[in-house]
Design a protein that fits this description.
By secondary structure, the chain is an alpha/beta fold. Helices cover about 40% and strands about 25% of the residues.
């Protein structure tokens, strides 16, 4: 289980969600969600596929509008921001997509340079080169700058996606199923990298996953999402110390003991 970071002020909320509802036609996905992300912590939202986890972070990023409720990021209500205000706010949020979203026709360097050149004006090439070098070192892939994404493994592509997000120095990271489709050893490496990013860049993160090993290794607090509501929250042991069959079934379904033994 993750060690607590005693030096971080956990009282300051960077994301605050109250009574959030979201539906699509007759499909009620989120049914009154309350959540607070404090500065410097990793919050894991755990739930089965299709439980509404990804919908929640898309609302946080301003990609979807809530039906009801309040979503504040850095004290600002997301759905009340003007276009430019939302653009400015998104620059402080790093969004790691489940499927990496790298441009196959660009080299790794070009993929990393793209958000900088698009969003930060008047940067010299030396400054861009320094930023690219820093994030490649942070994810341990310094030698890949002239390669193309299809030439890399799935785990390496995930690392480059994290690097491309970090190059904008976000204050908040949103990870959407960061270990999906990866083998147990590579998943362990990504979990370690998520913790390294938290420590090095002082990020506050929401990690969406149905992977119990990811939840246990990266989460300071874990929220269990069932049928559109959070039914348990706390650290890993607190969440699963229950007789609730919905949660016990999720634990058995993941069979975490097998995952852990395969990563030793």
């Amino acid at each position: 289980m993750k060690d607590k970071q005693d030096h971080i002020n956990k009282d300051e909320a960077v994301i605050s969600i109250s009574k959030l509802f979201k539906s699509f036609d007759d499909n009620y996905v989120l049914k009154g969600i309350d959540l607070e992300l404090r500065r410097g912590e990793n919050v894991v939202i755990l739930g089965r596929s299709g439980s509404g986890k990804s919908v929640l972070i898309k609302i946080i990023a301003g990609l979807l509008k809530p039906d009801k409720g309040v979503v504040k990021v850095f004290g600002k209500e997301i759905d009340k921001l003007g276009k430019q205000e939302l653009i400015d706010l998104r620059l402080k949020i790093g969004f790691l997509f489940q499927h990496n979203a790298l441009y196959d026709s660009m080299t790794i360097r070009e993929n990393l340079e793209f958000p900088l050149k698009r969003n930060v004006k008047d940067l010299s090439q030396d400054e861009i080169d320094k930023a690219v070098k820093e994030v490649l070192e942070a994810v341990g892939l310094e030698s890949t700058s002239n390669q193309f994404p299809p030439e890399l493994s799935g785990g390496q592509q995930k690392r480059i996606s994290i690097a491309r997000t970090l190059i904008m120095k976000p204050e908040i990271m949103l990870y959407d199923e960061p270990t999906a489709g990866l083998d147990p050893l590579t998943s362990t490496e990504i979990n370690d990298l998520i913790n390294k990013v938290q420590e090095k860049y002082k990020t506050s993160s929401i990690i969406i996953t149905h992977d119990l090993t990811c939840a246990k290794k990266t989460g300071d607090r874990i929220f269990m999402l069932v049928d559109g509501k959070f039914v348990r929250q706390g650290d890993f042991d607190e969440v699963f110390d229950t007789g609730d069959k919905r949660i016990k079934g999720f634990f058995d379904y993941n069979f975490i003991e097998q995952h852990e033994s395969s990563t030793k």
